[in-house]
Amino acid sequence: MRKVIYWVHTSIDGFIAGPNGEFDWPLLTPELSEYSDLMSDRVGVFLYGRVVWDLMSGYWPTADQVADDPHSVKFAPIWRETPKVVFSRTLTEAGWNARVTADLEGTVRALRAEDGKDMVLTGGAETAAALASHDLIDEYQVVVHPVVLGGGKRIFPVAERLGLRLAETRAFDDRAVLLSYRRS
């Protein structure tokens, strides 16, 4: 059975985007980039909410042609080739090897039951909250960056308690820290 992994970058005060939606603060250091590559090897499907989809599809299709950093050059073809599911009630088609559905719970349950590599949800607080409310996230990979944003979009816009157990911690280049949790 496939796992669902929530992979998210956060500030130390718990925000995934700044007060004006800015996402210019995560620093992809060499060690974090290497770990991200290992995560990509585990992934058979990317999961996105519409807002994050708009960001990802606006950059990754041609990132290897316009960026000069090794991570973008390596990841862009992986992103293009990997199947994607976009959860949206307003979007009708997405392109880039993606299908669109409004049925978050049913789609993820069906995908989890299939054989194959794991699925990863990158960012998308509302989508993560919806998956968590249906107990559909198996692993939480939270990368904490050394920045205080002072406001913005919270990592989890939910009021329900989630019981998790720490599975791993790791520091990357003496900057960011991975907190990896699994369901209790």
TrEMBL record:
Positions of the Bacterial bifunctional deaminase-reductase C-terminal domain: 2-177
Entry's Gene Ontology molecular function annotations: 5-amino-6-(5-phosphoribosylamino)uracil reductase activity
One GO term of the biological process aspect: riboflavin biosynthetic process
Pfam family, one: RibD_C
Domain of life: Bacteria
Gene3D superfamilies: Dihydrofolate Reductase, subunit A (3.40.430.10)
Protein name (database record): Dihydrofolate reductase
Source organism: Actinophytocola oryzae
Phylogenetic placement of the source organism: Bacteria, Bacillati, Actinomycetota, Actinomycetes, Pseudonocardiales
